[in-house]
Design goal:
555 residues, alpha/beta, Rossmann fold, 5-stranded parallel beta sheet, 4-stranded mixed beta sheet, 19 strands, 13% strand, disordered N terminus
Length: 555
């Protein structure tokens, strides 16, 4: 716009010199007709009543980003961005109040040196996220009865109607209407919405995934998921409110699972390579020994392929992470394969002891996904009882623990569980709409956009959305849309600018690698706007994504 104004002023200056005042006026009028300045934005609500918008969700609804809940993040939550568009003249939106955290940096954790860490920023000199100084979370001092945003970081779908959540999660406790008695769902219903957004379910699988698949108890039971979802959406629509419900995105496409390569162990010194290979000769020989014993005894069944999968060998350049994999048979168990080698005098007691850490280890492959927190642990000495073990280097000479890497089998668990949840979401929404004889709830599928952002090919996009390959009609339809959006090019193009699927200065994610930054949240809000405009006859103006900031940076 600045360049356009300069161009117009230049023309007008020239006209003043060579033309009469009348001609100048005519030229000005002509330019105004041909290049009118944009007027105030306006819109229409269609069949929507947006006068009381209420949002229910987890960290994605609260505006959590950069590993903290802080004021600027809340200001850029997708519901708050939506509410700003709803408030545009003619659309009919009303006030939208959030439980302000009143903190510039928020709290991301306890600083061992004292105090708290706050939000993270991207250090341009260190090329990694670094924490700011944070503040402790305080109770919400505003009017709880006037709240519109009921987004609670860390909340699972199964927590939305649980009165104990306030005691377990202070980010709800700080604004709960009656801590220990009230629930997020009850508070949201009490707000009496005419329109709502509901985005829950991510955390019902994300906790398992973010923890490297180490704790299956963090996965919500599918039956409980369906029961709670039906209860929640039934409660929100019982008084005639319309709403949007959003699907769970492809979790494993987030930078949290993509920033650390599977082969992130660099070797630049041949002496180190030789020393490591010598140290693993015993393991590799033991594995070959198990193959030989398998041919002689039914007590052991180790194929050459399985032995080769577990062998460790280093070379100059990038090497795979040595990882623990629960899916492997445990050769270190009592009476297991390593004990059999000892009983047959193929290895000595000292050699048997040296094999103990490698009962379920193997080098990582491209199908394994190290989590972002692995970046600070890999290549560091293992700490036992507070004492570093210099010869046990995590991911190099000692297997990286299960919580640092999502193994290939654990990836499949995440993909399958998420698909089951999305099928449930689609089914419950369809059931409510069918019972009402109208589209009370609009389903907003975010998966095609994530497939586009991640640069997936069509086949991968289809599989990640529908691993059942057509067994579920709702998933099949979603998979078709995701495949159509997958262009094989990293990033998403917004107004001619390609925004990256990472937390770089031109990315759409925040520094925690899971949550969007303001531009990312605006993209999500626009998905809701597009869905409403398409299904409700509204003309809600879209958000200018590029007008918002990206990731926060520091020197």
């Amino acid at each position: 716009m600045k360049n356009i104004k300069i161009y117009l002023f230049a023309i007008l200056a020239l006209a003043f010199v060579i033309q009469s005042c009348d001609e100048d006026q005519k030229l000005l009028e002509q330019l105004e007709d041909e290049n009118p300045l944009p007027g105030p934005a306006t819109g229409t609500p269609g069949t929507l009543d947006l006068s009381k918008y209420v949002s229910v969700g987890n960290s994605l609804t609260a505006g959590f980003m950069d590993n903290a809940l802080y004021t600027s993040g809340q200001d850029h939550s997708f519901p708050n961005l939506l509410a700003q568009q709803f408030a545009i003249s003619g659309v009919g939106g009303g006030a939208f109040n959030q439980p302000d955290i009143n903190s510039a940096n928020g709290r991301s954790g306890v600083n061992p040196a004292g105090g708290f860490f706050g939000r993270f920023e991207l250090s341009l000199s260190l090329l990694r996220p670094v924490p700011t100084v944070g503040e402790d979370v305080t109770a919400f001092a505003g009017d709880k009865s006037a709240l519109n945003n009921f987004g609670v970081p860390g909340m699972r779908l199964v927590d939305v109607a649980d009165a104990s959540l306030a005691a377990r999660n202070g980010l709800y406790g700080r604004f709960a209407s009656q801590p220990g008695v009230s629930t997020v769902l009850g508070d949201a219903i009490q707000a009496d919405p005419t329109f709502f957004s509901f985005w829950l379910g991510n955390n019902d699988i994300l906790g398992y995934a973010a923890g490297g698949g180490a704790n299956e108890a963090l996965i919500t039971d599918a039956g409980t998921f369906q029961t709670t979802l039906t209860q929640a959406l039934g409660g929100l629509t019982q008084s005639g409110a319309q709403g949007v419900v959003m699907t769970i995105p492809q979790i494993i496409l987030a930078p949290y699972f993509r920033a650390v390569p599977y082969n992130s162990i660099p070797m630049t010194d041949q002496g180190t390579v030789d020393a490591l290979n010598n140290s693993f000769a015993g393991l590799n020989n033991a594995l070959d020994g198990l193959v030989q014993v398998s041919q002689l005894s039914p007590a052991v069944n180790v194929t050459q392929a399985e032995a080769d999968q577990r062998k460790v060998s280093y070379a100059l350049g990038a090497n795979p992470i040595l990882m623990h994999d629960d899916a492997l048979d445990d050769y270190d168990r009592t009476g297991g394969e390593f004990d059999i080698l000892l009983a047959l005098n193929i290895i000595t007691p000292a050699q048997r002891q040296a094999l103990a850490p490698f009962g379920q280890s193997r080098p990582a492959t491209a199908d394994d996904l190290p989590v972002l927190t692995a970046a600070t642990a890999l290549g560091q000495p293992l700490v036992v009882g507070g004492v570093p073990q210099p010869t046990a280097v995590v991911g190099v000479s000692y297997p990286a623990p299960d919580n640092l890497i999502l193994s290939a089998s654990e990836v499949q668990t995440v993909v399958g569980t998420r698909a089951t949840f999305n099928a449930t979401i689609a089914g419950v929404v369809a059931g409510i709409n069918q019972a009402a004889g109208a589209e009370v709830i609009t389903l907003v599928d975010v998966q095609p956009t994530f497939a586009d952002v991640a640069g997936l090919d069509a086949a991968t996009a289809q599989f990640l959305v529908d691993p059942t390959m057509g067994a579920n009609a709702a998933l099949a339809a979603m998979a078709t849309s995701a495949a159509a959006a997958a262009d094989g090019e990293l990033g998403i193009r917004v107004d001619g600018v390609n925004l990256a699927p990472d937390f770089s200065p031109n990315g759409i994610f925040s520094t925690d690698g899971i949550h969007p930054n303001p531009r990312g949240y605006a993209i999500i809000a626009n998905l809701v706007i597009d869905a409403l405009n398409a299904s409700k006859g509204s003309s809600i103006p879209r958000i200018n994504v590029l007008a918002l900031r990206g990731v926060l940076t520091t020197d």
